């Protein structure tokens, strides 16, 4: 199992120590550095900015929101960053949710699986550069000939010759159908809230995708990149503080990341066996009682989602994640020294 640095997306301001973390990851033998986006900072720009000082680590997005750009625009970012990095780019994409897609990007959310399939196909056409890019699908028709068209659209090939036609495409997916499609059409999967305890739930969904005619990968060459926070705690008191500090993020995703009737993150927790808790946390969160919602999050859930404990606990937990089939563990850290200590511990 490889280790990656997960820089995530920005809060109110850019993180102050991202370059320090990237340098530490490069020097400590980490395999990759990943950035993310929500509805603030984008994923591509920080990756290019901070990745410029690297020469070895893979540079990836986890995840780019597909509705924020047309498929060919995504492909332009990919071929550009792959050239600039010397063939080290990984494209991670996902559909996000209806509140963001329709409320922030002003795009329809319906048929997310079909949209994903079209986006992946168009991106791969651009990177293959074998013929002018066309798409007959209803979501991203190329050339466009719908309402408002002047009728002059022309299929095009990219001016730039892509460095690689097979840039890895990893997809963020949560539900059974989306996970199965990911195993069918992608090179890797970026799960959210994947844990050793929940890993068995996903295996039949993955197997379904691998078994489909024309599936791109098999299980032995398919990547699974799971994200968690890892922290070595010298004392029980420090561990207590870390667990408490992680709970607001859990309650945010469980209760506030989506509408009541369409919170896909909430449904992940339901599938994990926390149906009653997820419903109560969501009720409190949407009622503006965030502190009360966070107080309901149990330690056992946080410890399942993240790797927190003394050195022995951390090494045991990392091994447990690896045993479930995770090929890359994307970790968040507070500073470069902490990252280096973890790299030495797990070496």
What would you say this structure looks like, in words?
- With 347 residues, this protein is of the alpha/beta class.
- It has 2 domains: 2-230 and 311-346, TIM Barrel, CATH 3.20.20.30; 234-309, no CATH class.
- Helix content is 45%, strand content 13%.
- It has 14 helices and 10 strands.
- It has an 8-stranded parallel beta barrel with strand order 1-2-3-5-6-7-8-10, surrounded by 5 helices.
- Strand 2 (32-35), helix 2 (44-51) and strand 3 form a beta-alpha-beta unit.
- Helix 1 (18-27) packs parallel to helix 14 (336-346) and helix 8 packs across helix 10 (275-286).
- The chain starts with a strand and ends with a helix.
Care to give the gist of this entry?
With 347 residues, the protein is an alpha/beta fold.
